[in-house]
């Protein structure tokens, strides 16, 4: 992606700066530079919010908590409530749909399924457009306004598209979306159309869309809102702040997230790091990322890494063997070339977490088990519970430890998947020889509708059988 000429360094008085994460580079740029990767070395950028300048973290925590009763729109938002750690001036034209403030649920049936004493689920699907993307999108679209962009674009598997369309419309900007044709849940596509976005269906997969997005980002009137954009990560990191507040500032032993384009894990890792730097938490939770087997390039890389010494500086690999043809029914994480993989890997290694993959069968059954707790989520979210079950069996998570799993999307993001699972028709197409054959997924917790005679006695008989 062609970059605008960068500043030599951010002005000393600025509230924040953009910094290359690669230690061998470490270049610093101004907060108003419209860049997405480091112009010097091509490495990932992150925002340095200069938390070391904050003198009294206890007062800051008290301020955040007091805003829960405020009617100021910035305080109602679960993102802007934490604005002292966001890279915007007070005069910035902030955009909000009152995102954040998502619940943490106790999930006893899912805990038993995973052989745990307890399990909590942080449900980001309760955001305004039904996914975790909203917490980052409000920040990215605000930065688009700050920079004077006219159009905000993204490549998407569905959730980013819906979020971008809603927030760009809210800000009076033009939303434009690139989607892989025929690979998006109709429910997610419907959201983008309803919010008035220009929807471009591309022949190819998400990674093809992402390549085109990076080319479009060369136009000065267009702003890219994918997680390659470090301002997206700034909004999403507030989930870590909110989670700690909900946990009474007691750090969970483990936080587990799905792995797609890796913005979520990158953001949570950054948020926890900043809280530790402020002294608001004394340690990091172990952050683990779960991918679908058919779209798991980072899990494969992680499995081949040598064991890291606790005191050693994190050395990130230079390249990742991308998945050219990712395959999974969890379409939100059907990504073979995650743009934020270096940030995510760094966060996992720093916290002594894991990156593993789970099968389509494991995802489907875990999703049904989450449903038995009365909590609906889209398929990608269920990778967390499926992964926790495997990590418990492997000994990485112990039975009595405290675990928060992040659910990233609402159950109504992909209702066809739910129906197909319970009716016994869920299948993933796979290449067999020279043809494409459906691989059936036999749900262990199917709950198909029953045809019952229209009489009281027949219904009572059916109820008796179900007890």
Commentary on this structure:
With 467 residues, this protein is of the alpha/beta class. It has a domain at 104-130 and 233-415: 3-Layer(aba) Sandwich (Rossmann fold), CATH 3.40.50. The protein is 35% helix and 15% strand. The strands form four sheets. A six-stranded mixed β-sheet has the order 4-5-13-10-11-12, sandwiched between helices. Strands 8-7-6-9 form a four-stranded parallel β-sheet, sandwiched between helices. A three-stranded antiparallel β-sheet has the order 2-1-3. It starts with 16 loop residues before the first strand and ends with a helix.
Q: How confident overall, as mean pLDDT? A: 92
Number of helices: 16
Large-scale geometry: globular
Low-confidence stretches: 1-13
CATH topology of the domain at 104-130 and 233-415: Rossmann fold
CATH class of the domain at 104-130 and 233-415: Alpha Beta
Briefly, what is this?
The chain is an alpha/beta fold and 467 residues long. The chain has helices at 57-66, 73-76, 108-113, 133-147, 159-171, 186-194, 206-216, 230-236, 238-246, 263-278, 297-304, 341-350, 360-372, 383-393, 415-423, 456-466, and strands at 17-20, 28-29, 45-48, 104-106, 120-123, 151-155, 174-180, 198-202, 222-224, 254-258, 286-292, 355-358, 403-407, 427-432, 435-440.
